Amino acid sequence: MTLSGLALFADVPQAELAGLEAQLTPVSAEPGDVLLREGERGDTFVLVLEGTATVTRAGIEVGRVGRGSIVGELALLRGAPRLATVTCTSALRGLAGDGDAFAALTEAPGVRERFGRTAARRLIECTRTVPTVLADGTPVETRPVLPEDRARLRTTRRWCWSSLAATPLRASLGGRTADEPTHRCPRRDSH
Questions:
Q1: Contact by Cβ (8 Å): 109, 86
Q2: Which residues span the domain enclosing 31?
Q3: Which of 46, 64, 138, 158 is at a distance of 20 to 30 A from 100, taking alpha carbons?
Q4: 135 belongs to a structural domain
């Protein structure tokens, strides 16, 4: 099995796939083998061609991967230690590569867009909440705003403003609509 059998590479011409495969190293692992370990330096990624594995963080299972999955790419892209351990649950065959190989893969037609969606989902899964206490003493968990949150935030903001339409609070806000800011930010001069 090669890259041509994976949906991620559906738009890539066969000749280009052969060049990409030449930059990758075959990987084989058995059930119970650790493919990638949490906390280790992330200088490679693995593209799973066949087989399955579990993904654990701090010993807790957070996901499963299989054919067509890429693992280890976040640590590689971030230049940081791995966030999770990947352990094979069946015999696994894959292709491993370094940063240069990953860059070449993402330059192939259609791959960057497909991978971008996968990476965004993984970032969401890996984002840890931060316990915070509001001024009134209420404890809350916060996390960074991610690209997928933007549409939901716009919808929520409009809902909140429309809910306030008949309240005295809306009147005290000068009748602003959801699309009007509460203040104007000064522009920065380009120096």
A1: no
A2: 3-126
A3: 64
A4: no
